[in-house]
């Protein structure tokens, strides 16, 4: 199974190169050039991990993160920052982002963070499924 990644970044060349690098390593990648487009894609596409630029014109990364977490709370978000301060990335983590990376980053570090974020999302989903199964079984024994 391929890990599904949404990359949201306003720098088209960077976005295209990063998407190609991830696809060449077996990831399924969708791209968005701004926060609104990314949130719209998230409504229509199942993804596991979002790689989100912090500093974008219009809706910034923090506002986009807030919408992502409201829409799909289990999707893990990695904040990407080249210009914004580390404090902004830390604020993103306080709001539910999985981690952050400084631009430019090495492929190995990004891939490692994506895989770790995917594992965390999968573990959350498994705990939710197990809790639901337990709830159903307990309800059946009470009948």
TrEMBL record:
Chain ranges of the Response regulatory domain: 4-118
Keyword line: DNA-binding, Phosphoprotein, Two-component regulatory system
InterPro entries: CheY-like_superfamily (IPR011006), Sig_transdc_resp-reg_receiver (IPR001789), WalR-like (IPR039420)
GO cellular component terms attached to this protein's record: cytosol; protein-DNA complex
GO MF annotations, alphabetized: phosphorelay response regulator activity; transcription cis-regulatory region binding
GO BP terms: regulation of DNA-templated transcription
Hydrolase listed as a keyword: no
Modification type 4-aspartylphosphate: residues: 53
Highest rank taxon of the organism: Bacteria
Protein's name in the database: Response regulator receiver protein
Species assigned in the record: Syntrophobacter fumaroxidans (strain DSM 10017 / MPOB)
